[in-house]
């Protein structure tokens, strides 16, 4: 499968939103139940760390980073989200997005990319760990999804570039 990874453009939003909605419907990817508006999503995410994956001109996945805090001390720390269309999962698309995002994040001065993953989402946990993320914590009953308390595994990938050590 020939996959193209490129920066996300504003006109990608409808396809990004649709893939996000599919992830929400699965119930194992996010606490969110409805995608935000483009304006809200755009305001929340880093400008330079937004990627999409295309196969034969069709957008099939995306990855984006957002700041974890507005405080200056945390400027180099971001939370990552990654979603791939169910029809093309487990075909290397997420891996390609992560590999590209690591370089983009470091170029943007981001030294720590964090992720919160439901513990039952084994595919995501395994994927992230294969790409250098390590478990740094566990939050019990952190929020409800469909009325059920859910836990989160916290993971982090720290840059190994000398300027970030």
Describe this protein with a few key phrases.
globular, alpha+beta, 7-stranded mixed sheet, 4 helices, Aminopeptidase, 165 residues, 7 strands
Write a structural description:
The chain has 165 residues and is an alpha+beta fold. The chain has a single domain (3-164), classed as Gcn5-related N-acetyltransferase (GNAT) (Aminopeptidase), CATH 3.40.630. It is 27% helix and 35% strand. It is built from 4 helices and 7 strands, in the order βααβββαβαββ. The chain has helices at residues 13-26, 38-44, 93-107, 122-130; strands at 3-7, 50-55, 58-67, 77-84, 112-117, 134-145, 148-158. A 7-stranded mixed beta sheet has the order 1-2-3-4-5-7-6. α3 links the parallel β4 (77-84) and β5 (112-117). It is globular, with a radius of gyration of 15 Å. The model has no long low-confidence stretch (mean pLDDT 96).
Mean pLDDT: 96
What is the overall silhouette?
Answer: globular
Q: Helix fraction?
A: 25-40%
Number of strands: 7
The CATH topology is given as: Aminopeptidase
Brief synopsis:
It comes from Neolewinella xylanilytica. The protein has 165 residues and is of the alpha+beta class.
